[in-house]
Amino acid sequence: xxxxxxxxxxxxxxxxxxxxxxxxxxxxxxxxxxxxxxxxxxxxxxxxxxxxxxxxxxxxxxxxxxxxxxxxxxxxxxxxxxxxxxxxxxxxxxxxxxxxxxxxxxxxxxxxxxxxxxxxxxxxxxxxxxxxxxxxxxxxxxxxxxxxxxxxxxxxxxxxxxxxxxxxxxxxxxxxxxxxx
Amino acid sequence: xxxxxxxxxxxxxxxxxxxxxxxxxxxxxxxxxxxxxxxxxxxxxxxxxxxxxxxxxxxxxxxxxxxxxxxxxxxxxxxxxxxxxxxxxxxxxxxxxxxxxxxxxxxxxxxxxxxxxxxxxxxxxxxxxxxxxxxxxxxxxxxxxxxxxxxxxxxxxxxxxxxxxxxxxxxxxxxxxxxxxxxxxxxxxxxxxxxxxxxxxxxxxxxxxxxxxxxxxxxxxxxxxxxxxxxxxxxxxxxxxxxxxxxxxxxxxxxxxxxxxxxxxxxxxxxxxxxxxxxxxxxxxxxxxxxxxxxxxxxxxxxxxxxxxxxxxxxxxxxxxxxxxxxxxxxxxxxxxxxxxxxxxxxxxxxxxxxxxxxxxxxxxxxxxxxxxxxxxxxxxxxxxxxxxxxxxxxxxxxxxxxxxxxxxxxxxxxxxxxxxxxxx
Lengths: 181, 425
Ligand SMILES: NC(=O)c1ccc[n+]([C@@H]2O[C@H](COP(=O)([O-])OP(=O)(O)OC[C@H]3O[C@@H](n4cnc5c(N)ncnc54)[C@H](O)[C@@H]3O)[C@@H](O)[C@H]2O)c1
Ligand SMILES: [Fe+2]
Fold this sequence. Notes:
The structure holds two protein chains of two kinds. Chain A is an alpha+beta fold. Chain A has one domain: Nonspecific Lipid-transfer Protein, Chain A (2-Layer Sandwich), CATH 3.30.1050. Chain A has eight helices and five strands, in the order αααββββααβααα. Chain B is an alpha/beta fold. Chain B folds into two domains: about 15-185, Rossmann fold (3-Layer(aba) Sandwich), CATH 3.40.50; about 190-410, Dehydroquinate synthase-like - alpha domain (Dehydroquinate synthase-like, alpha domain), CATH 1.20.1090. Chain B is globular and about 65 Å long. Chain B starts with 13 loop residues before the first strand and ends in a 22-residue tail after the last helix. The chains are: A alpha+beta, B alpha/beta. Fe (ii) ion (FE2) binds near residues 198, 201, 202 and 285 of chain B. Nicotinamide-adenine-dinucleotide (NAD) binds next to helix 2, helix 5, strand 6, helix 6 and helix 10 of chain B.
């Protein structure tokens, strides 16, 4: 609040840029999940264990951006855009504010460990949440520049073979607060 | 210490502690305008004669709406439905829960159904499902372990589907917690030992896991101190009322702590052993506690080292170097387990293969470790653990805990080392 009075334009301007950045990242992540569900064995298995009506909405409060990934009629995993209207969401993941989303999608682990609390509010059952977090973790390894190229080879590096970069960045877990009060 | 950029802490349970704390029951009920409480308990607690002092405290002024004592271990969705029907039929207006975690969590479940006027607990699974205040709930713990009297979560099993479900909501915090030393006096030695180690685990995980904060830290440290000062006395001299009251307070403090900071891999793996092998929760905690601390050392060595102070006292803490403290803390906990094993005539296990049922059969056969490892990855508590675990990591921990050997710390796949003290592998 204080900042708004002090730096009105800068604040709202930077907020818009942040929103655009996060929207782009969400789009990339959504597409990447769809791609990984076809080529990555572990991601495929994780989705296989999720129910047929699985539909996940990851979005930023209060007004977006967001993205939806779920299974279609044929059980294929698809990125389904940003609009939840008419879709039955089974796992609703809300990033509580745009700053939280920025930390999440610029992979700044160390900042976040210090403030692990209350970044993300989830409604849905716990096993689904945990499975989706693991999927996000794997997909993130693809999103790091070096590794993006390895997408085609159907293998992503295991934790032990992973570059230090992956160890910094791979932990979406940290941003999640499963329990909301 | 580092203060988190943001955190929340909430505990609004009125706590009444003392050797005759139960005597305040009529006043508590009056303060929430209740005239007809339903008493929920289980056969073990009732058989130990613990409902008598409750009835006596209620006296002639309050008419109880009946006593329900058929709660199974780990509670159960079906039982909860039955009790809710009884509550409605007797037109009760509050609940007094007298028992261990199984009873307290059952009572929380019943409270959801009767307050929301529903028959289906499943409608309230998940986060934020409860939206308003429930009926008054008075929690009278008879074990000193789960701390459920101070927590916002109910762990309820669905025995038909073999799963344990979590119901987290601020509305599940009881209105009152009554810590009365008479209520734990009858607790057998082995139960005293492993339930206290459950509380110890709550405190240790609260202090070392990701959502720690200054308020959860201070309650955790005090809980650890009270437990280490009183656990042997409580086990060896069941009638020591001071020790009993201290342990009851410790368990409440630890509950307060972890309810606001959550727990980590020890609980995640422990819940899964409980779900698959039906081992009592506290037993799993006793065995796994040193392993969880060991696994996370490269992240939380400093914090683990700090726990040497409440565990062993000022002198032991000061005479050890900072890099030695973390391993000394873990050693102290292993020694505590061994001492408890002696003091309970071998009933308290120090490793998974030592866990046996009443007839002496092994409860955790080696073949099920793989299933346990898989299940534990889906437990919400994993989120708060400082280091990641995948299937192989969880299996490695389980195999070592089964044999009773310390972890080979060289084999732990470590992320970024964030502990300020480095502990040699
Ligand atoms: N809600 C929470 O915050 C929370 C936290 C941890 C565990 N839990 C749950 O709590 C349950 C375990 O609770 P627990 O460890 O207290 O055990 P429990 O409630 O299952 O009781 C164990 C046995 O001890 C007997 N008993 C209890 N008090 C006694 C007494 N004073 N004298 C003689 N016998 C007595 C009982 O009859 C029962 O047979 C698990 O289901 C676990 O999932 C809940
Ligand atoms: Fe516990």
